[in-house]
Specification:
The complex is a heterodimer of chains A (about 140) and B (about 300). Chain A has about 140 residues and is mainly alpha-helical. Chain A has 2 domains: about 30 residues; about 100 residues, Cytochrome Bc1 Complex, Chain D, domain 2. Chain A has 6 helices and no strands. In chain A, helix 3 packs across helix 6. About 5% of the residues of chain A have low confidence. Chain B has one domain: monomeric porin ompg (Porin). Chain B has a 12-stranded antiparallel barrel. Classes of the chains: A mainly alpha (about 140), B mainly beta (about 300). The interface between A and B is medium-sized, with 15 and 16 residues.
Amino acid sequence: MKTKGIITILATGFIVASFTLNVNTSDQKKPWPVPAAAKAKKNEVPSNAESIKAGKSLWNTHCKSCHGAKGLGDGTKASQLKTDPGDFTKPDLQSQTDGEIFYRLSEGRDDMPSFKKKIPDEEDRWSLVNFIRTLK
Amino acid sequence: MKNYNKILLQLLAAFVLLMLSAGQSFAQDSTEEAPVIKKVKPVKNTFGSVFIMDNQSVMVPIKGTLEMAIQHRFGTVDNGKKDLYGIFAPSNIRIGLSYAPLKKLLVGAGVTKERMQVDMFAKYALLEQTPGIMPVSATYFGNVVIDARDKSNFRNSVDRFSYFNQLIIARKITDEFSVQVAPSFSWFNNVEAYVDSKGNIREKMHNYHFAVSVAGRYKISEKSAITAGYDQPLTQHPTDNPHPNICLGFETTTSSHAFQVFAGNYYGIVPQSNNMFNQNDYTVGQFVIGFNITHLWNF
């Protein structure tokens, strides 16, 4: 009977700890500072059909597997990531300047790769920003 | 051989016509959709990988790209269930590594199971298709291959060497459809010979071989494509003339990978071996299943 009681207490403790840990990790957002100059940088590529099409093509090749087809953060690899890929339809991302988005996708951090070498043409990365704007 | 030449001429004529007509439509599209004057840039991603099944594609990766390639060719499918359509038959494998140290240049090396061939290659983008400026892309590909089997197979060390030179000319006709044509020249320092009835030593094959390859890709989605290719031998040898190669496949690409699975007649992976020694005959169903996998890292 004593053993049952200990098991019940341990199980309850484990469940409570699990929830607490989950809450802690999902609530914690590591700051990702963007230099002021990068934040203020203007988008060099006008957002038109051609640019959005180019951005969508790059999104499908480089971003979709983690961020999902619609930017909901539900790509096939999302569950393997240590960091939350985020929901790009929400103001959390959409309220950022083009320059901030451009900087973050260019530089990368943790699970997020740096794309300035894989997509070396800046115009292509601006087109990707233009496509990301269509996800809201 | 006459038939082959006729087919080849027809293919080349079709390719030239396709390029000319596509050039017109491309120019029209670009003037209609881009009223704002902007700097034109070379087209990107003519193909999804440096390979297109049994051949090199026109593509040269961006500077700083390291690429690992694993290429596999199973046995011929004509034994049916006996060896699961060649999948359980002895297979041919190449493992390669390449790097782009400069813009437009790729260098690399690999080793192939068949005759333990060690290859070292270079690939350089000579021309880049640019709307309104350059209608096609052109890339040179060349290699040196050392047959690294035991020395008992060779009289002289130089007999181990063979060479391959190819000019790849391609056009991305639409966002979905790209095509390339690639004449090539192969050279083997040593070829087999035989003694005729009069006691004279005769070459079975010439040391050299000319060939031409045509290949295309049609994208069926952003990441997937259907690929097709044809390789035509041109040189007529005294004996053992090689057979052409027909291949059809599927390609899927991601940010860091390209995967191609296909059926063709080439069992070899080193291009000069394929062009000169292919004895798989498509007319009797001697196809092999093959795949190429590449992984890219950008530094």
